[in-house]
Amino acid sequence: MTGPVLRADGVTMRFGDVVALEQLDLQVAPGEFLVVVGASGCGKSTLLNLFAGFEQPTEGTVELLGERIAGVEPRCGMVFQSYALFPWLTVTDNIGFGPSARGTRDDKAIADLIRLVGIEGFEDHYPAQLSGGMRQRVALARTLANDPDVLLCDEPFAALDAMTRQVLQEELNRLVETTKKTVVFITHSIDEALLLADRIVVLTARPGRVKTEVANPLPRPRTAKVQLSADYLRLKEQIWESVQEEVLAHMRATR
After folding, report:
1. Are 94 and 127 part of one and the same domain?
2. Are residues 87 and 100 in the same domain?
3. Do 171 and 224 share a domain, yes or no?
4. Which residues span the domain enclosing 105?
5. Angle value at C-alpha 216, between 184 and 248, nearest 5 degrees
6. Is the pTM of this model over 0.90?
7. Phi, psi of 67 (to 5 degrees)
8. With bands split at pLDDT 50, 70 and 90, how would you rate the model's confidence at 116?
């Protein structure tokens, strides 16, 4: 495919008197790892919900592979911050839930995903028996089990401790390189954005529009060591200046 995988064209989203997004235009290329950052309340999660088909825009259109998204879109797999695992199912059965529901379960494919996300030996454990980092690995594998065209990630590592978060960021980079998935990732962390993204989009304070886009030329594979480079620090400062303006605007508007 030569065109964008995802496209938002003139998208406005209202919730009563609140305008979350206004005249937002955005395209996501095939195989791109796009990270969206911005002040709280700027519409980042709303944008992700539109791409997933959970909501419909008030104005404008949202497309996947050139087709308007008119309902919940199975070709877009969502990874949530809260894991959203079924507590009564084992790791294996959580990962296989989607294929089982469709009658296409493949135990070998599930085992391959368990190895891919690094949770071998915990196949028969339940979510309550796992650490937060392991639960998020299961959630990611469950999404991949449905073989979506796009991974939509709504701050999936925000609730984790700093060390676990760093490990999973590097693991996600490895997984995306292996699977060649297109990714749209939401975060409040500029460091996380720089470790993951091919391109970083900064949204304005509410109502959200694209304020700026920054290509990320940092070489891959990326590990924590890249944070010591001069290029990394330059990019971080550039993005922070853009985000800071919107954070201050949001604070003034909510006083």
Report:
1. yes
2. yes
3. yes
4. 81-147
5. 75
6. yes
7. -115, 140
8. confident
